[in-house]
Each structure stands twice: as structure tokens, then as C-alpha cells.
Predict the 3D structure of the following.
Amino acid sequence: MRLDATTCWARIGPFGHGTLGTLHPDRGLDVVPVVYVIDRDQIIIPIDAVKPKSGRRLQRLSNLAADARCVLLVDHYADDWSELWWVRAHGHAIESHPSPDALAALGRAFPMYRAADSVTSLIVMTIDSITGWSALPDPA
Amino acid sequence: MRLDATTCWARIGPFGHGTLGTLHPDRGLDVVPVVYVIDRDQIIIPIDAVKPKSGRRLQRLSNLAADARCVLLVDHYADDWSELWWVRAHGHAIESHPSPDALAALGRAFPMYRAADSVTSLIVMTIDSITGWSALPDPA
């Protein structure tokens, strides 16, 4: 069954991880695993110094600088398909310096981000549309 | 640490689910959760009659008919980040009628696909490049 926007936001808030899709000028598109927190109506995705990355400027940031459109998929998979659900948010994003509020929220959600300098930058995603689907009705 | 191609294929084979990214003519890109099986060096993604979908032709199929480029991300998330790993395959895909071999492989991997007419079509993805990353070295 389709999930309404309120239910979509409620489900992705505590989930905390998903797949970010951006547009690549040559190969069309890129997808990367990300973690995130919700700040009001925006999705905050950290660029961190915790999980290893290539030394070059991250492709996801180059992609967003050239075309800000992006999509986040939050997918709850289970071998029992009656437990499946997903939420997908289309929007656009910019890179931003980490604010104290954002760092605090990230630290609450992910203990690895409580270390100083663990988050070097943010992707701040503004949502244009959010849709979702669940095999089971929402318990609320 | 980076995973070589052999390790990438070995890890995604039994995993069976991931995120498929395709190019959308207007909004840039789409991502959908998918299940899959590996057949030699191709990734076989079923279009099924099991999980509900909108009645129209699936957007992922329209997207691929217009631009065959696509990407599959297989993401193993864990709250303990020492267990993180992911594999990403870039390639191109076409829609295909389900062959008996493909239906048998899907039925072995997913009991829900043993029912007649549960798989209506296939996305057959040919891989141009496959890369991966794991927080821990491969145990092999």
C-alpha cells in the first residue's frame, strides 16, 4: 500500500541509512550508500572522515555541483516479503559547511560522529516529492 | 578496503537485493529496490506480479528503453560500521522475456517466484564495471 508523506517522513527519520543517487556527466548516474539525519524538512547527509574514501574530491559532490537533482531511497528489505517497505525522496541538494546543530544531530544518531572533525562537510537535500510503499498497513 | 571484481561477484551472488538506478528523461534519475539473481556474468532482475506496482508500464522499463545505462548498488549496512560493505555495478540493461533457466534460478532464490506467472518480464543487466568496498578484509 502507498504511504502518505507524513508516514514516509516518520519511517525514514529513525532508519538513518539509504542510497543517494546523483547525475554523472558521463556515465549518467551514480549511487552511493549514505547515512543521514532529518532536520525539519531537509535530509542532512554527512561527508565524513570515518569511512575511507578516495583522495579526490568526492564524485557525489562534483555531480551535485553540476546538477543539483538527486534522489534518496530508503529500503527496508526482509526475507519475509510481508515486511518490505521503502520510501523515496526526490529533490535537490547543495554542499554545506557543517553547522553546530547538524553536528549535534549527527552525533546523537551515530556515535562515530561524536569525534572532533569526523564530519568534514554536509550534503543538504531539499525534498520536492516523497513517496513510499509498504507491504503491511502502517500500525499507527 | 577495495574489493576486486572476483570478490564483488562472490559477495553479491547470495545477497540477492539492492537498488537499481536508471535515467529518467525529466527528473534525471530513478532508483528502485530490486531483487536479482546472477546468471554467468549478467544480473537478472525480475519484473514480478507479486509486489504491487502501479498499473502503467513500469517507469524503470521506460527509462531503460530510452537509455540503457543503469547501476546496481548492493549495500550491506550494519550499526557496527566495521561490518559495512557495498558493491556497485555499472552497465546497461534491456528488457527480456523470462527464459526457463532464469525462472528456475529465480525460483531457487526466492520461493515467492515458484508460483506460475509470478515473473512477467526480466531486466537483463550486462556489467561494464564492478567495484566494491568493505570495512573488513575478505575472510577468503
